[in-house]
Design brief:
Layout: E1 17-23, E2 29-37, E3 47-50, E4 53-55, H1 57-74, H2 89-110, E5 117-123, H3 133-151, E6 155-161, E7 168-174, E8 181-188, E9 191-196, E10 202-208, H4 217-230, H5 240-245, E11 254-256, E12 263-267, E13 279-281, E14 286-292, H6 298-305
Antiparallel strand pairs: 1-2, 1-12, 2-14, 3-4, 5-7, 5-10, 6-7, 6-11, 8-9, 13-14
Helix pairs in contact: 2-4
C-alpha cells in the first residue's frame, strides 16, 4: 500500500477507485485488485462531496459487491462452456449466488496464507450420519469450535457429495498448528499424507500445500478449493439437480477461527485514462474498469494510481 497512507482512514468524500490488498504472513500487504469507476461510489463511511451527493457505507459496500459481480459475469463462468446460454432464471440466480460465495471464500483464502493444510474429511456411517446435513454440521461444528478455542484452529471447509449423490464429505484448508496430526507414512505425488488424530467422526487426510514456483501458499490452495466449488457448475443450464448441488444444506462452505479479511485503499483516478474494457454495473447506472494482479499491466496501473509511491 502507499507509504504514509492508512487504509480506510481520512475519507473526506466519495472515491472512484478501490485497491484490494491481501495480508501476507510477514504482516505486509499484497495488492491484488483495482476497480476504477466512472462515478464516485466507494466509501467506508458516510461521505459527501457536496450537500446533495452522499454515499453511505452500506450503499458503497453494495456497489463494491455489484462491481465485482459485473467483472465475474463478464468472464467465463467456471465449468460452464461460454457457448452454453444460461437461460433458466433459477440457474442464473444460482450462478450469481455461487459467484458471490466463491468470491468471499477466495478472499478468505488469499487473506490467510497460514491455512497451509489441505484437508479431506470422510465420515464413518457407524459414528455419524453421512447424509443428514444438519446432524453432520451440528457435531462437526462442536468439534471445530473446541479446536478454535483450545488450539487456535482456523479453517474453511467446503462440502461435497460422494458419487452416490447423497453422502457428504468435506474438503478444506486449516492451519497446521491448530490441529493434532501425525504422519500416516504414506505419500501422494511425493507429499506426505497426515491424519488428524482426534477427529472422532471418520477418516481424514491432510497435506501441506506449497507452490514450488513462487512459494505462495494462497495461490496454490485457492486452486484446490476452487476445484471442488466449481464441479457442480458443469451442465447447469436446464438441470435443476445441478442447481441444487451448488449449495449443500443451504451453505456453500463453513469457516471459523480468527481469519483475516482483505484491506482496502480508496483514492480518485482518471477513469478515461485507464485502458481496460468498461463493464456495466447493474442497478447503478455506471461503469467500471477492473484488473487483478495476474494481468501484466497491473503493476503499471498501480504505480500510476499511487503516483509512484508503491512499497516493494
Amino acid at each position: 500500500m502507499p507509504t504514509g497512507q492508512k487504509i480506510l482512514q481520512n475519507l473526506a468524500h466519495p472515491y472512484n477507485t478501490r485497491i484490494k490488498y491481501y495480508p501476507l504472513k510477514d504482516g505486509t500487504l499484497r495488492p491484488y485488485q483495482i476497480i476504477v469507476s466512472r462515478s464516485s461510489m466507494f466509501s467506508d463511511k458516510e461521505a459527501c462531496s457536496s450537500p446533495g451527493f452522499c454515499v453511505d457505507r452500506e450503499k458503497a459496500k453494495a456497489f463494491s459487491t455489484a462491481a465485482e459481480a459485473a467483472a465475474e459475469a463478464a468472464a467465463e463462468a467456471p465449468g460452464v462452456s461460454p457457448e452454453l446460454p444460461i437461460t433458466d432464471w433459477q440457474a442464473q440466480n444460482a450462478i450469481r449466488n455461487y459467484r458471490a460465495a466463491h468470491r468471499r471464500l477466495y478472499d478468505k483464502i488469499q487473506s490467510n496464507p497460514q491455512l497451509n493444510l489441505f484437508v479431506t474429511m470422510t465420515l464413518d456411517q457407524d459414528k455419524i450420519s453421512r447424509t443428514n446435513y444438519d446432524e453432520i454440521v451440528k457435531h462437526l461444528s462442536t468439534w471445530l469450535d473446541n479446536r478454535v478455542r483450545r488450539d487456535g484452529l482456523q479453517y474453511v471447509l467446503v462440502p461435497e457429495y460422494h458419487k452416490d449423490g447423497v453422502s457428504i464429505h468435506w474438503h478444506g484448508l486449516m492451519n497446521d498448528n491448530g490441529l493434532h496430526i501425525e504422519n500416516s507414512h504414506h505419500k501422494d505425488h511425493g507429499k506426505t499424507i497426515y491424519n488428524i488424530t482426534d477427529f472422532p467422526y471418520g477418516f481424514t487426510t491432510a497435506k501441506r500445500v506449497t507452490n514450488p514456483k513462487n512459494g505462495n501458499y494462497s495461490d496454490a490452495i485457492s486452486k484446490y478449493v476452487h476445484k471442488y466449488m466449481t464441479k457442480a457448475l458443469k451442465n447447469i443450464d436446464g438441470n435443476p439437480e445441478a442447481v441444487e448441488a451448488l449449495k449443500i444444506g443451504g451453505r456453500y462452505y463453513l469457516s471459523g477461527g480468527r481469519l483475516n479479511t482483505p484491506e482496502y485503499f480508496y483514492t480518485n483516478f482518471d477513469y478515461q485514462s485507464v485502458n481496460l474494457p468498461a463493464l456495466k454495473v447493474d442497478g447503478y447506472g455506471t461503469e467500471i474498469k477492473i484488473i487483478t494482479a495476474d494481468d501484466l499491466t497491473f503493476s503499471s496501473l498501480l504505480n500510476d494510481i499511487l503516483g509512484g509511491n508503491v512499497e516493494s
